């Protein structure tokens, strides 16, 4: 009885030692030498693995950062400038500070502005709905409100407002990873400069129809009248395909375009209320 | 002996309400909008300008590549605009809108009703003529017919199959065409046989159309080489790959084309259009459209000029019933609900179905209970319950290995699902994405 015990203990011990030696030898032979800085950089990155940088995860970004000579287009939108500075410190490189960005929903087609003309009872997916038709209103460019952007957001920063049926971005939570902009089949969501104290001005419409058609479909649509283009003192607004677009790099936040827009398609966010009474109410609306 | 395909299939209620309604000509509308992209492939290039006078059958937009098709005016009148109009896809697309004035046809078109049986053209001339006449697959897929007839080098067509199955419920346009234009159809098939240089052709017809089978069988002796094959009633018997399997017992390989196994399939509507183009010099500018629905006062089969608004078809069939909930373009299985009833009829419009409110609603979605009804229903041997999950999770690599590109979107899976899951919807979504990835890889 005891000899059986003894034999098995000896056999298993010998086997264990033998296999350990083999494993060690193999591990030495096929050792993967990795730059230790990759681990250090990865530790600095947020670890959200959101893909906002264009790499599959933070590890991929860390590898790219270590390999890159200068950071150039490499940027972690979630961590922002502070993270990039830390990564640069680890690697002994310089990171250029970039303006913080935020996702902006460019559609104002709430039910009161844009009456529903059809009823959609298909699966709840904007991508699917765009394959079937152009939308349940007269506007074929506007938001469908089925929430592909909400599903794409990993930071709980975008939600559909039950009243306007439009997505609303939470400035505090949004990291500008761009997942929602990629998920939107109508290309309504755009990453724009966050602006000083979150002050922003943008055209909240993507309708490329001619004025009359656009206006008929939605009372808050950009009708391509060009008033804003003429008013802008900084040449920041371009009119293309019956749609105005404000270049956020040129915009000086003077708010003159907001005043002249006949349909209220140009929105201003986080500005102090205006002195005039009527303008103040309009401002409150756009918020 | 009735033949059928072995895998999957479902039996939706047939509802062929308009089966005994003879084909009538729809009165000319006051205005038509002819889309420049009514076919698979590149949109045609517009040849007319605003204010131009056009005649019936005049070429108004030219094919802009090999996979593209000519577009002819379906009416005589003045070109009113070249603006985009809403089409059945729910988007605005470029169209030629013509105000109708009289009904003046091009002189070259033979308008007599006499049957012309002698085929004088050679194979190349026939294909050229078909291409010039803008003929596309009239079964609904609208693939340019001359492309299908131009056999790639190294391949050989052995058998021509004519699709007279019409397995979609409600639709009866092909059925009526086979009954009323049997001789013309047979000559059209002979023209196609000459173009392909094959000596046998089969007409596949589902067994729920015994009158059409009997009628065409009685013509078999007059037109040697053509055989009528009765098929079991099972949806999707009229799917190209299913029809080939049923009739020849050959299977199109995954990712392959019918010509890989020597088969070419054309619809009966296409064969009739070929007859008219080759023997009567008449380009494709009208087609038979079934307008039907359980509540409709006068379900009918109309010969309709391309570009006629669908609302005028419904008006001619007795107008909208009071509680109309949905108007579907095409059959109930593969068709699509219209977002606007003023969209024009295109070369691919085989039917218009009006559903009442209660019939048009989807049932509430449940959870998948893994009953595998969708798996046994799929005629391509796919696993729809898996594909929908993969599609929702955007696992496109796996979708490709699960052969999602083999799906022909027949809807058999969604039809039988006890949980009413939007199986086909998500499969379509995944298929679109995988298709994009495959195309990007090729370039």
SSE layout:
The complex is a heterodimer of chains A (287) and B (443).
Chain A: H1 2-29, H2 36-44, H3 58-67, H4 80-91, E1 101-105, H5 126-132, H6 148-152, E2 158-160, E3 167-169, H7 179-183, E4 189-193, E5 200-203, H8 211-217, H9 227-231, E6 237-240, E7 243-246, H10 256-260, E8 266-269, H11 277-286
Antiparallel strand pairs in A: 1-4, 2-3, 5-8, 6-7
Chain B: E1 23-25, E2 31-35, E3 45-46, E4 53-54, E5 59-62, E6 71-72, E7 77-81, E8 84-86, E9 92-100, H1 123-132, H2 145-149, E10 159-163, H3 173-180, H4 182-196, E11 201-206, H5 210-219, E12 226-231, H6 240-248, E13 263-267, H7 268-280, E14 286-292, E15 300-305, H8 310-316, E16 324-329, E17 336-337, E18 351-356, H9 357-360, H10 373-377, H11 384-392, H12 396-401, H13 412-416, H14 423-442
Parallel strand pairs in B: 1-15, 10-11, 10-13, 11-12, 14-18
Antiparallel strand pairs in B: 2-9, 3-5, 4-7, 5-6, 7-9, 8-9, 14-15, 16-17, 16-18
Report on the structure:
The complex is a heterodimer of chains A (287) and B (443). Chain A has 287 residues and is of the alpha+beta class. Chain A folds into two domains: 36-91, 3-methyladenine DNA Glycosylase II, Chain A, domain 3 (Orthogonal Bundle); 101-286, Alpha-Beta Plaits (2-Layer Sandwich), CATH 3.30.70. Helix content of chain A is 36%, strand content 11%. In chain A, helix 2 (36-44) crosses helix 3 and helix 2 packs antiparallel against helix 4. Chain B folds into four domains: 27-100, RNA polymerase II/Efflux pump adaptor protein, barrel-sandwich hybrid domain (OB fold (Dihydrolipoamide Acetyltransferase, E2P), Beta Barrel); 123-280, 3-Layer(aba) Sandwich (Rossmann fold), CATH 3.40.50; 286-360, Ubiquitin-like (UB roll); 373-442, no CATH class. In chain B, 28% of the residues lie in helices and 19% in strands. Chain B contains 14 helices and 18 strands. In chain B, strand 5 (59-62) and strand 6 form a beta hairpin. In chain B, helix 1 packs across helix 4 (182-196) and helix 4 (182-196) crosses helix 7 (268-280).
């Amino acid at each position: 009885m005891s000899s059986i015990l003894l034999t098995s203990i000896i056999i298993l011990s010998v086997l264990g030692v033998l296999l350990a030696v083999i494993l060690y030898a193999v591990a030495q032979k096929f050792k993967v030498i990795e730059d230790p800085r990759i681990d250090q950089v990865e530790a600095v990155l947020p670890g959200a693995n959101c893909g906002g940088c264009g790499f599959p995860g933070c590890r991929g970004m860390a590898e790219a950062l270590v390999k890159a000579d200068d950071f150039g287009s490499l940027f972690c939108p979630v961590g922002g400038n502070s993270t990039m500075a830390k990564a640069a410190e680890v690697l002994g490189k310089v990171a250029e500070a970039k303006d913080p960005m935020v996702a902006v929903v460019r559609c104002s087609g709430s039910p009161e502005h844009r009456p529903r003309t059809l009823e959609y009872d298909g699966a709840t997916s904007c991508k699917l709905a765009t394959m079937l038709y152009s939308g349940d209103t007269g506007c074929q460019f506007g938001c469908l409100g089925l929430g592909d952007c909400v599903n794409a957001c990993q930071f709980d920063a975008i939600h559909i407002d039950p009243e306007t049926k439009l997505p609303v971005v939470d400035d505090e939570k949004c990291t500008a990873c761009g997942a929602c902009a990629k998920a939107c089949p109508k290309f309504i969501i755009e990453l724009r400069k966050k602006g000083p104290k979150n002050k922003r001005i943008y055209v909240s419409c993507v309708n490329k129809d001619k004025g009359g058609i656009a206006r008929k479909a939605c009372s808050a649509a950009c009708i391509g009248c060009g008033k804003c283009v003429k008013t802008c003192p900084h040449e920041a607004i371009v009119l293309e395909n019956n749609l105005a677009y404000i270049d956020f790099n040129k915009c000086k936040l003077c708010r003159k375009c907001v005043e002249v827009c006949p349909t209220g398609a140009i929105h201003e966010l986080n500005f102090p209320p205006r002195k005039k009474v009527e303008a103040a109410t309009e401002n409150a609306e756009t918020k | 002996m009735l033949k059928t395909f072995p895998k999957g299939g479902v039996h939706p209620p047939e509802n062929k309400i308009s089966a005994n309604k003879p084909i009538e000509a729809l009165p000319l509308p006051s205005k038509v909008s002819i889309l420049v992209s009514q076919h698979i492939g590149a949109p045609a290039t517009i040849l007319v300008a605003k204010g131009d006078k056009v005649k019936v059958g005049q070429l108004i937009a030219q094919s802009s590549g090999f996979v593209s098709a000519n577009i002819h005016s379906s009416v005589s009148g003045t070109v009113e605009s070249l603006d985009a109009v809403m089409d059945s896809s729910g988007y605005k697309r470029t169209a030629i809108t013509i105000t109708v004035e009289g009904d003046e046809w091009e002189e070259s078109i033979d308008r007599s009703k006499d049957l012309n049986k002698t085929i004088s053209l050679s194979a190349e001339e026939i294909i050229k003529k078909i291409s010039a006449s803008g003929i596309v697959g009239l079964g609904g897929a609208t693939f340019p017919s001359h492309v299908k007839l131009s056999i790639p080098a190294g391949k050989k067509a052995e058998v021509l199959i004519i699709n007279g199955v019409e397995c979609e419920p409600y639709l009866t346009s092909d059925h009526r065409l086979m009954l009323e234009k049997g001789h013309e159809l047979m000559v059209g098939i002979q023209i196609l046989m000459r173009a392909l240089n094959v000596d046998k052709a089969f007409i596949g017809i589902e067994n729920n159309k015994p009158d059409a089978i009997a009628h065409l069988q009685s013509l078999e002796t007059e037109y040697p080489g053509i055989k009528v094959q009765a098929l079991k009633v099972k949806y999707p018997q009229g799917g190209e790959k299913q029809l080939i399997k049923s009739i020849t017992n050959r299977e199109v390989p995954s990712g392959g084309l019918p010509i890989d196994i020597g088969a070419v399939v054309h619809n009966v509507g296409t064969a009739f259009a070929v007859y008219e183009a080759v023997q009567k010099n008449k380009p494709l500018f009208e087609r038979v459209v079934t307008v039907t629905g359980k509540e409709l006062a006068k379900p009918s089969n109309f010969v309709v000029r391309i570009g006629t608004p669908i609302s005028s078809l419904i008006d001619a069939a007795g107008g909208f019933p009071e509680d109309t909930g949905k108007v579907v373009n095409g059959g109930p299985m593969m068709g699509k609900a219209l977002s606007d009833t003023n969209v024009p009829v295109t070369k691919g419009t085989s039917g218009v179905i009006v559903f009442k409110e209660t019939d048009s609603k989807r049932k509430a979605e449940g959870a998948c209970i893994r009953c595998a009804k969708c798996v046994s229903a799929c005629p391509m041997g796919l696993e729809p319950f898996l594909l929908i999950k993969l599609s929702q999770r955007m696992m496109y690599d796996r979708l490709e290995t699960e052969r999602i590109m083999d799906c022909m979107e027949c809807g058999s899976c969604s039809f039988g699902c006890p949980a009413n899951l939007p199986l086909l919807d998500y499969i379509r979504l995944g298929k679109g994405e995988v298709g994009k990835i495959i195309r990007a890889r090729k370039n």
